[in-house]
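This part of the workshop introduces the protein records we will be handling. As an example, a complete record with its sequence and its structure tokens follows.
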Amino acid sequence: MFEIIEKQINVDLPLDHHLHAMICQIPNYLDGSNVEQKWAQLKSILELIAAGEGNLKKCHFLIFPETSVPAEYVEQMLEFIAYRFRTNLITVFGVEHVPLAEYRNFLQRYSEDNTEVLASVIRDLDAGDIDEIPTNWCLTAVKENSGRLRVFAQAKSHPFVGEEQLDTQHDLYRGKVFPLFHCQPNCFNFMSLICLDYVYRDLYQSNINAIIEHANQLFFHSRQRLDLLLVIKCNPKPEHAAFRDVVNGFYGEYLAYTPGVRDTITVFCNTSAATSGVEFKPNWSFGHSAVIIHKSHKMAAVNNAEYRADDFDGLPVFRLRFGSETRLYYFNLPMFHELDPRTTRVPLKIHGIFQPAKNGWQRLEDSRQNGHNSDLHD
């Protein structure tokens, strides 16, 4: 069963200004090659955020795709975050598959923040001979306002068929516990999911329905809501009908009252088109990360070389859909009060797009970037 547990984190977010997030649309090497090259690229992004040139010092959410971090470099990444990142910064990143027993060992090292997840994994290990079953997992690393690093883990609940085998002993582990984070002292609530965790539906249970119901109860009890839903992906079909159907149900459900998610911002972070290590399929297309908000934001349609803004083929949403190249997208998260139809403020802006360069990352030329900012308007 899909169980949502609530976690309090001490992250002091601004009350009078929008938040900032960076999507890291970078390639994966699914055959396990180029590990050192992969870590070098990851570290270059970490260095970019740590330096904080310009308004990058305002970054609140740093998001990497599914399976993007080699397992052998996880501790180095957490150490960098602990000692080099500014406080009040939240980093979400997917980790390559590891055996379930190794995942349990990691949870034991960080047991203080992962009590429920660890208990669930131990129960599953005790129930069968599954120590070596592969686990697709992600981490949410939180640099609290005191400087303390907190690390929360979750495992993917619904693997893609290509990740599984006919032999059930080689299936992937299915995670069962997922955190919902409450940022204090200023209320901001968010969750993260791994790819198909977002689209898992059947007649008896649905992850996304569980999230909607939990967010609704949060609203009814405290008048808070789910502000942000982060979905990290390594998916060659980012706009599959299954994703579109869930977006439609999430934002356009007319048979139920859903105040808990009406103003949720959904961020999809996918790997780039340079992803390798899978059998070539002519209709596969990695990339196309996206940001989706409710249609009440009333944004204009845009289409240029780096992104397009549309309604996802007629859905009750505004979607900012990026391209497929290797890029870092830095943008703001809309504030709830910007839903006011009288405002002339732009609720969603791209503050920077970065491309790979010899010395790390380079912001796209000023002329093009100015064009991006002016394209998004009410």
User: Anything to note?
Assistant: Residues 163 and 172 are 7 Å apart (CA to CA).
